[in-house]
């Protein structure tokens, strides 16, 4: 074959058409709703039913509270399954506590007292740590006093 003709054919290489390799993997486009649909179908099999008129759900975790305002609540008592869906807000226990004290029953008051005692211990420990830190600050360089020359004082103490 002619070298020029071969280079001309190679330069005008085509993509696609007869004799080209097929694409092996088809691109699959997933939507975000498939997970939600699958979850809802699984919950339907468990037998959950929607509980209406719930204004707020608080989930307590250590000293944090995960709070849902106007959530969608579904439950299946037989399967011991509760589903709370909505937009959560994470707050500190101290911020939420005044608003939920009237919602707590007598059995939860003992638990609340224990939490309050633990918080007081943590505050006391933090205060003790701050005081110990202040005592350790003696190693720092003292502030300058106007009108005094420390070199003269140091020479006087040596003499």
Automatic annotation (TrEMBL):
PROSITE patterns: NAC_AB (PS51151). Residues 33-97 form the NAC-A/B domain. Residues 10-19 have a biased composition (Gly residues). The keyword Glycoprotein does not apply. Gene3D superfamilies: Nascent polypeptide-associated complex domain. Keywords: Transcription, Transcription regulation. Residues 20-29 have a biased composition (Basic residues). Residues 1-36, 123-159 are annotated as: Disordered. CDD domains: NAC_BTF3. InterPro entries: BTF3 (IPR039370), NAC_A/B_dom_sf (IPR038187), Nas_poly-pep-assoc_cplx_dom (IPR002715). Residues 149-159 have a biased composition (Acidic residues). The keyword Methyltransferase does not apply. It comes from the Eukaryota. Part of the nascent polypeptide-associated complex (NAC). PANTHER family: TRANSCRIPTION FACTOR BTF3 FAMILY MEMBER. Belongs to the NAC-beta family. This is Nascent polypeptide-associated complex subunit beta.
